[in-house]
Amino acid sequence: LYLGEARGAYDAYVRRNLFARLRYAPGRDDPYPIYEQIRAGGTFYTTAMGNLATADHAACKEILRSRRWGVQPEGEDPPPEFDLSFLDRNPPDHTRLRRIAAPAFSPRRIAELRTGVEKTVERLLDDAERTEATTGRFDLVPTLAAPLPIAVICDLLGIPDADTATFSRYGAALGSALSGIRSLGHARAVMEADAAIERLFTDLFERRRREPADDLVSELVAAEDAEQVRPAEMVPLCSLLLVAGFETTVNLVGNAVNALLDHPEQWGALVDDPGLAGAAVQETLRWDGPVQRTTRVSFDDTEVGGTPVARGRWVNVLIGGADRDPAVFAHADRFDLTRTDGGDHLAFSSGIHHCVGRPLAELEATVAIRQLAERMPSLRRAGAVRRRNATVIRGPVALPVACR
Ligand code: HEM
Predict the structure, then answer these.
(1) Could you read off the pLDDT of 275-332 as tens digits, one per residue?
(2) CATH class in words for 79-268+356-404
(3) CA 157, CA 153: separation in Å to the nearest integer?
(4) Among residues 53, 189, 313, 351, which is most buried (max CB within 10 A)?
(5) Given ligand 1 and candidates 65, 71, 348, 367, which is best to mutate, with the most ligand atoms within 8 Å of its CB?
(6) Protein fold of 1-65+292-346
(7) Do residues 216 and 156 lie in contact, with contact meaning Cβ atoms separated by under 8 Å?
(8) Does ipTM surpass 0.95 in this model?
């Protein structure tokens, strides 16, 4: 009896702390068993803070797509210190600002970038081969996964080559805030980066107002002049595009290579048919996506999957858990490039906030994975992977590999 009670108390303790365990190793390094336990407990799990969390695919999708939920309580503005433009806004501001940025990411405009992306990947892999020739290995993150999206988004925005290094330093610092502030020192670094980015963009706006170029910043300056964007909205809008461009695709490439190295038979299939690169990218998005969760708040008393939810409740939408839901994906924990049921993953979210950069992220990652398979068929690990210390954004910070 005593043992039974102890067991019951232990189970209750584990259950009470499930969500908190996502923040610490080993849950941070492998959150998937925790998502599974959260899902097994029903549609909603209540966190120690009294918020809700769900890893149920149907519930996540319904919340993301419903007009009864938003990214801020109805009528409230986001906290000004980390203003991430339309990502943090409900309609009508969301609709107006998204419409201004979206045309630059249309599939047609992104397809025009393909040749440039291919050339960038070629150049980065040339560098990687040179590094390996002298040191016997290279780190995939700083040689390929990180510089690729930085080069592409800086080019798209029209950031001059001379300023790319400064933008990327501050952009990375700003992006680190996406997973929350860890310490006072971290808060200070983020605020400094925020001020520096503001100065950099303000200078760039001035320059493009004088001499418009064929880039996104020039388009945004024109939208400001046409009074579609308020002056105070310009820097947050550009910062959002910069940070979203930096902090996500790097992890998609990193997670894809990491998964492929752990599944040599899948890597072999890709080497035999590099046309599978697109499938490898989609399966990585589902199986180990770079954005693990987002949040929404209910505008009214409502219900999700038959469970009532009161107005003003915050929900952690556990995208990474939803994408392992066995109700939607057969053998959901299996990484399999040939699966045919992976299309409904939520890695780019769903509904009005679904990722505006999706075509760009997919293009970059597919080109990178394809060229890796073509040029480096014997790619293998040359050291331990190190993961970033974060819960929202998931990916490696170090991925040592060799290919000879
Ligand atoms: C929104 C994921 C790459 C720009 C989102 C959201 C997700 C996401 C999950 C929605 C968050 C929510 O619903 O609360 C990803 C992933 C990427 C990626 C996994 C790469 C693998 C990019 C790129 C850009 C970009 C390259 C462009 C520079 C944006 C923007 C939003 C967004 C502007 C806000 C959309 C809105 O609120 O309407 N992304 N993203 N993303 N993403 Fe991405």
Answers:
(1) 999 999 999 999 999 999 999 999 999 999 999 999 999 999 999 999 999 999 999 9
(2) mainly alpha
(3) 6
(4) 53
(5) 348
(6) 3.30.43
(7) yes
(8) yes
